[in-house]
Here is the input.
Amino acid sequence: MLETRDLTVRFGGHVAVNAVSCAFAPGTLTAIVGPNGAGKTTYFNLISGQIKVSAGRVALNGQDLTPLGAAARAQAGLGRAFQLTNLFPQLSVRENVRLAVQARAGAGLNLWRIWSDRRDLLEKTDRVLEAVALADKRDALAASLPHGDQRKLEVGILMALEPQVFMFDEPTAGMSVDEVPVILNLIRQLKNDKTKTILLVEHKMDVVRELSDRIIVLHNGELVADGEPETVIASPVVQQAYLGISPEEKEAV
Ligand SMILES: Nc1ncnc2c1ncn2[C@@H]1O[C@H](COP(=O)(O)OP(=O)(O)OP(=O)(O)O)[C@@H](O)[C@H]1O
Here is the structure.
């Protein structure tokens, strides 16, 4: 169970995330929605350890992660897709995944190690490449891939690391229409696993509606709604705060 308790961060006088308490169970996908500037990415940054909290705590399976930096939190089981910064651009697609598989297996990050004795790790690398639909591009340099393929590779790296918690911040941003379903399928596969905790920041409501078991809404840094997707989407607070229409206007439409 991932939990945030009274999680708060202030930037100068501005409270970007304000006392957010929430728990996320394994086997669930929670979408985090809210208008621009609501604090969604900042909430993610506080959870994954990219920024320090002003107050409150983050815990995973009862372990207090708050004092830990981002790397230690990743070790503890938090996995976040980082808009391509996880990639090694000058390595091939396969080597990128292979290093993640190797790291997960505790085999270290030595690219030159002889791999023939670890057939299981090579097989896992190939399984991940199949899963992210990059098997036919395995020998291409990561840097040479189109944007959508780089995002898929990043998800593959994350899958190879097998974190307990997967955090996706607008995973389909900048993708072409035909690439979007591949990423959504991957997230669906992770969800079907039933053991992973998945958090998704997403603006596209159709994606949110389709994938999520639960939606939480942030507005001005505060948690203002939390519940089943249909109920939350229909709630006045979302109609007003997120979609920008008041219930009266909606009547008129
Ligand atoms: N490092 C920072 N220093 C100062 N202010 C910041 C910092 N990071 C975020 N903010 C402010 O905190 C607020 C929340 O920003 P955040 O990026 O978390 O919102 P968001 O909900 O993810 O928005 P979007 O949907 O546009 O990505 C904004 O007002 C933003 O300007």
